[in-house]
Amino acid sequence: MSSKSIGIIGLGVMGENLALNIERNGYSVAGYDLDAGKRAAFTKRTAGKRAVTADTTAEFLAALEIPRRILMMVPAGKAVDAVIEELRPRLSPGDVLIDGGNTYFPDTIRRLRALEGSGILYVGTGVSGGEEGALLGPSIMPGGDPKAWPVVKPILQAIAARTDDGTVCCEWVGNGGAGHFVKMVHNGIEYGDMQMICEAYFLMERLLGMTADEMAAVFAEWNRGELASYLISITAEILAKKDPETGKPLVGVILDTAEQKGTGKWTSAVALDLGIPAQTIAEAVFARMLSALKSERVTAASVLPGPTPRFTGDRRAFIENLRKALFCSKICSYAQGFQLLRAANLEYHWDLNFGGIAML
């Protein structure tokens, strides 16, 4: 069996899709997971490809070319520590460990310090784009030990998304915990984006009385201009989607509560620690928390119905002003995010690549 270019530990949907992406772009992959079911699924999905499934850690490590490149796609927290603890005695100087999960950046800093002097190179990288991005091309934000970058750069840049002009959406962002910090702020900005889109929807639906189809057309039009983005695009698609059982707009059928994975909360907490006013992001986090209080909101609505809004002005002009307000608000959210990045760069001495981060 020939040695594989990179190994992936954690064969959930993200890990499996990244493996398929890597293989499609000319590299071979070894996969490992504690779950025998996931190993079996990986074996089936990679049949006929340059991939192998290992049944043990020893078999996994033996399958990799030297220096070993290992991408950990396991849940953030104790699972990452457990993988590192198991692998560390079996790794050699020059091997690279990459944490591709949504890890809180202080954990990445701690792990880098723990590996100092071992010769093992550690990378904490943000991976943005979800399951589809992992398969077709994510935005990748690596940081950590700079000596690792030349070792992992060819593979990470090969699988990353590209802009219309061919620019690769993967660049070294900085030292230490920079990669996971940038991903955290990226997610925080995204929280703000989603909340502002929700508020634009709210005004169209409640104040203008627009139907889901009418709003879908507006968002689709906005996606052809300066607001063009993934979030605006999928908003148009979601508003146009119908519930297959009732035929009603899906947006009116789903429960109006939102969950969160923690990155928006982390961003807001760090902004407070560093003295940066990231109010757009923080308010978006609070809005999600408020949405989760469904029973309280239902009770409150029964005794505090509020006014019935009436709009008598120029609807077309209002929608255009709403577009401009959303665009301006997005700029403010990005500015707050970059203020936070600048403050963290001064605090942690990461040598952040701000231009590269903006492109990502």
What does this protein structure show overall?
- The protein is 54% helix and 10% strand.
- The protein is of the alpha/beta class and 360 residues long.
- The protein has an 8-stranded mixed beta sheet with strand order 3-2-1-4-5-6-7-8, with helices on both faces.
- The chain is globular.
List the helices and strands and how they pair.
Layout: E1 6-9, H1 13-24, E2 29-32, H2 36-45, E3 51-53, H3 57-62, E4 69-72, H4 78-87, E5 96-99, H5 105-114, E6 121-128, H6 130-136, E7 139-144, H7 149-159, E8 174-175, H8 178-207, H9 212-222, H10 230-240, H11 263-274, H12 279-292, H13 294-303, H14 315-348, H15 354-359
Parallel strand pairs: 1-2, 1-4, 2-3, 4-5, 5-6, 7-8
Antiparallel strand pairs: 6-7
Helix pairs in contact: 1-6, 8-11, 8-12, 8-14, 9-10, 11-12
* SSE class: alpha/beta
Order of helices and strands: EHEHEHEHEHEHEHEHHHHHHHH
Query: What is the distance, rounded to the nearest whole angstrom, between the alpha carbons of the first and last residues?
Result: 37 Å
The count of helical stretches stands at 15
Helix content: 40-55%
> How many beta strands in the DSSP annotation?
8
Calculate the mean pLDDT score and round it. Answer: 94
How large is the radius of gyration? 23 Å
Largest sheet: 8 strands, mixed
Strand order of the main beta sheet, please?
3-2-1-4-5-6-7-8
Which shape, going by the Cα principal axes? globular
Low-confidence spans: pLDDT under 50, at least 5 residues?
A: none
